[in-house]
Write a structure and sequence with these properties.
The complex is a heterodimer of chains A (343) and B (104).
Chain A: E1 10-12, E2 18-20, H1 36-44, H2 53-67, H3 80-107, H4 134-162, H5 174-202, H6 205-216, H7 231-237, H8 251-268, E3 274-276, E4 282-284, H9 288-296, H10 308-311, H11 320-335
Antiparallel strand pairs in A: 1-2, 3-4
Helix pairs in contact in A: 2-8, 3-4, 3-8, 4-8, 5-8
Chain B: E1 5-10, E2 18-24, E3 27-33, E4 39-43, E5 57-59, E6 62-64, E7 71-73, E8 79-81, E9 90-91, E10 93-96, E11 99-103
Antiparallel strand pairs in B: 1-11, 2-3, 3-4, 4-9, 5-6, 6-7, 7-8, 10-11
The chains are: A mainly alpha (343), B mainly beta (104).
Chain lengths: 343, 104
Amino acid sequence: MANLDESRFGTRDAFGVYQPKEPIKYAPISDWPPRPGAVWRWLVGWPGFVLPWHLLYTCIAVATWLWLTPPIATMADFSTGWILTILARNYVLVVVYYGLWHGRLYLQKAQGTATKYNARFPEGKNDSFLWNNQLLDNLTFALASGVPIMTAYEVLGHWLYANGLAPMVQITSLGGLVWVGVLLLTVPFWTEVHFYVVHRLIHWPPLYRAVHHLHHRNVNPTPWSGISMHPIEHLLYFSVILGACLIPAHPIVMLAIIMRSGLGPGHGHAGFEQMATPGGGIAAVGDFPHYLHHKYFEVNYANELIPLDRWFGSFHDGSEAADARLHARMKRKAGRGRTGKAN
Amino acid sequence: MSENWVRACAVGDVDKEDVIEVTLLGRKIAVYRDKVGEFFATEATCTHEHVSLCGGLVVGDVIECPKHNGRFNYKTGVALRAPVIHDLETYPAKRHGDDVFVAL
């Protein structure tokens, strides 16, 4: 088993709950007064804005466009050949990517529970889930609904580009290349805003009960939980893909959104703060804000890039003081006639 | 012994700093034993979602729900941490000989 001293990065309480040492902070771009040095370190540091995730998903998008996507001229008609090619490619990408995360952390248990937020691994049998098993349930919704719906949006996007119905920038010119580069840098911002809006929408109690509850059954999430959603949630969540067709852009931008929204939930739900890498290193992989969202429901709807939760009063930085504020807020809401129970 | 006291379990059924679930008069009851050996009882189902608390951890005077990690003081029933906000119902419990009784 990989040697990882979790006390370097956080503390574990008597109940086994692991808490990172540092409270959750937003990206320094929203700090006032501005802190240029902090912004620079955030831009080029690890973990930061570019490294590792944004660069990884952008590289996968570029490679996918270059080598794993049919020529655009062939995608002007909805024919099964290219559609099935893209579907198969997306299945392979998702299975390999999520499989690597799950395999190392939950099958191989390469670092045991070191830096795992919840000290327990999910139970083998759990009647909250389809097939009485969290993994089988997650695989079912991810592969039977998630990948096909994500692919359907991608297919529609390629068809719009191929028919000139979506404005496509040519990357053979310097101006086009620079514009696409700028768009690629902004992908995390618009995916976060879209995610926040959709996420708030599906926390509206009727939609929560009918749709989002399925994802929230994963109170001890694993990588596969990330993309395990109700089909209606997949439809809403992956609709961000078509954003690349509304402005002058390029299919690479659309693919960058797909990789970020389709693969990103894998590490976002891994449930570990740090990962011992096969080479003996340690990589910061955690998404503690989203783990808190799964735990407390009413906090941290967005990520840490744009302070949306701070602006709208749902930010939880992981501290005991934030716990107390949340508890008081929920009690006040219950006192105004709401049930207070998870809907 | 008052007639509303119901035998819940044997003393040895519950370890110190642990909890078990019993069904008494058709109601699911959690029976706790603290670190000095005193017994306590609450409703067994978390007030947040329909989950038995008895799969949770007992540390000190606190029981943690195994599902969402909400915490209660099992001696007073008070909900301590989100997402639980409604207190647990508590019942008097006592040891009599080798048995534990709960008043319903």
